[in-house]
Design brief:
This protein has about 325 residues and is of the alpha/beta class. Helix content is about 45%, strand content about 15%. Strand 5, helix 7 and strand 6 form a beta-alpha-beta unit. Helix 1 runs parallel beside helix 14, helix 3 runs parallel beside helix 4 and helix 8 packs across helix 15. It is globular. The structure holds 1,3-dihydroxyacetonephosphate and iron/sulfur cluster.
């Protein structure tokens, strides 16, 4: 992308974004890993499942997706008639890169009779070859909905897969992918932080290694980590996921202390380099120019839609059943 001359930018970016959004009847969706100022200007901030649901239900004319490319692609698959733009098309994901469609074709051929459960952090081509798509907040319900004698291939995150095996009691054949941010968390650091902050609770995303998850008080999706940190009766929380998530916790519980785990030497924090490509400047330009636009081929979209729809249906049915049980 060519550098943007500062003179081409309005002085008050937030106001200019607000104005364009109204003019164009656009909705800004943002993931919790985006910069605080992007989260604050978004119409909706959520985890991957929440964002998929919002994208499927919106009646806005255009979706400006502040997240990584696979998330914007999901929005386009679920809302094909909407224009979907992403501030920076280079915003990829190391998990997505860890498996190609050819890899998955081969993996399936080596394991006939298996169904494929695919983490949403994957390309549209990989989703199109899958039976079920899951996010970290919908995976347990989806795996529990698959008949017990049905063998399963789980791709591409080996840490999430291993955690799901433990929680559901289902043995699965796992693809050896991982996230460059969460994979670097260590049990050593958790122990050191616990020694430094006695009484602190540890909340971690399941993309982290097993040795880290074993020390956690809570393991779950980004939205569940926020719920846990805001609603649990403790003052200090060690947070094992991308550091920008702390913004929402701090807003909801300013009196509490949130300590980021680090997957980077310099910042002593955990930053996703792909999410960081989206900036307020690029968000403004994406809204103004309606580009870069996500496009997907019709046949590919239809094939990827089936496993995504299964995820939305299974998770909605499970949420309904939980509500009924709680009443
Ligand atoms: P969530 O679905 O929990 O928001 O996670 C997305 C992600 O990319 C984690 O690295
Ligand atoms: Fe992908 Fe990891 Fe970034 Fe999440 S944090 S978007 S899994 S690279």
């Amino acid at each position: 992308m060519t550098p943007i001359p500062p003179s081409a930018m309005p002085r008050d970016l937030a106001a200019a974004i607000g104005e364009l959004r109204r003019e164009k009847n656009a909705v800004i969706l943002a993931h919790y890993y985006q910069d605080a100022e992007i989260q604050d200007i978004a119409d909706f901030v959520g985890d991957s499942l929440d964002l998929s649901r919002k994208a499927a239900a919106t009646d806005a004319g255009m979706i400006v997706f502040c997240g990584v490319r696979f998330m914007a692609e999901v929005a386009k698959i679920l809302s094909p008639d909407k224009k979907v733009v992403l501030p920076d098309m280079e915003a990829g994901c190391s998990l997505e890169e860890s498996i190609s469609a050819d890899d998955l074709r081969k993996f399936k051929a080596e394991h006939p009779d298996h169904v494929v459960v695919t983490y949403i952090n994957s390309s549209i081509e990989v989703k199109a070859l899958s039976d079920y798509v899951v996010t970290s907040s919908s995976a347990i319900d989806t795996i529990n909905a698959i008949p017990a004698d049905q063998p399963i291939l789980f791709v591409p995150d080996r840490h999430l897969g291993a955690w799901l095996e433990k929680v559901t009691g289902r043995k699965m054949t796992l693809w050896p992918g991982s996230c460059i941010v969460h994979d670097k968390f260590s049990a050593k650091e958790v122990k050191e932080l616990k020694a430094q902050y006695p009484g602190a609770k540890v909340a971690v995303h399941p993309e982290s290694p097993d040795s880290v998850l074993a020390l956690a008080d809570h393991v779950g999706s980004t939205s569940s980590i926020i719920d846990y940190a805001v609603n649990t009766d403790a003052t200090h929380f060690i947070i094992g996921t991308e550091t920008n998530i702390i913004h929402q916790m701090q807003k909801a519980a300013p009196q509490k202390h949130f300590i980021p785990m680090s997957s980077q030497e310099g910042c002593k924090c955990a930053m996703c380099p792909f999410m960081a490509l989206n900036t307020m400047e690029k968000l403004y330009l994406a809204l103004k120019n309606e580009t870069p636009e996500i496009t997907v081929a019709d046949d590919l979209r239809e094939r990827a839609l089936t496993p995504l729809r299964r995820m939305l249906d299974i998770s909605a049915a499970a949420a309904k059943a939980r509500e009924k049980n709680a009443a």
